[in-house]
Specification:
Oligomer: single chain
Strand content: under 5%
């Protein structure tokens, strides 16, 4: 069976194209979508084919390039990192985090994946910290740098939006904010009695 055909992509596709196709098919055949459905067995079978095709292509890509991340770090964690990436791509952050927590290797790839998980959870500070550590360990890694820039830019966008809606983090004497804080504290105290 041709793994490219299973994923519905052209031969020689990039890792990003492979991951995107994989994520789309995992969403399509996810078991949660087929609960109490007569097609559940077929969907499970297709999902297994998709996983096998993805593994095959990613192993092939890892063997063709220096490493998954571009400069030798990926192979340090090998299949653990590949499996963690698969779980992240599929949206199973808990499983990805369990794999990383079991891994004794704290390479740049480890910090990168922890940062990606934190960003998917919405934990901005932890994501930036881990991604920055990965970039510091491997400053020439394009993937790490792109993710870090994207997270930092996203944080800046939220600050700008907040400022555009009247919130200014530089104003410590904002009467409305102080009044609201007092109201919330008083409300909490009244509920306690």
């Amino acid at each position: 069976m041709n793994p490219y055909e299973v994923l519905g992509i052209k031969e020689g596709a990039s890792e990003e194209e492979i991951r995107a196709a994989y994520r789309e098919l995992v969403r399509k055949y996810h078991p949660d979508k087929y609960q109490d459905n007569p097609l559940a067995d077929l969907a499970e079978e297709k999902l297994q084919e998709v996983n096998e095709a993805y593994d095959m292509l990613m192993k092939n890509h890892a063997g063709q390039s220096q490493s998954y991340s571009g400069n030798g770090s990926y192979n340090a964690g090998g299949s653990d990192y590949m499996q963690a990436r698969r779980y992240i791509d599929a949206g199973n952050l808990a499983a990805a985090e369990n794999i990383l927590n079991r891994t004794g290797d704290r390479s740049a790839e480890w910090f990168f994946l922890k940062g990606v998980i934190a960003s998917r959870k919405g934990w901005y500070d932890e994501a930036v910290s881990n991604l920055q550590t990965a970039v510091n360990m491997q400053p020439n890694n394009v993937e790490y740098n792109q993710h870090l820039r994207a997270i930092v830019n996203q944080g800046g966008m939220f600050q700008n939006q907040a400022a555009g809606h009247g919130y200014n983090s530089q104003m410590n004497d904002d009467f409305c904010c102080k009044a609201l804080q007092c109201y919330i504290c008083a409300d909490c105290c009244c509920d306690a009695f």
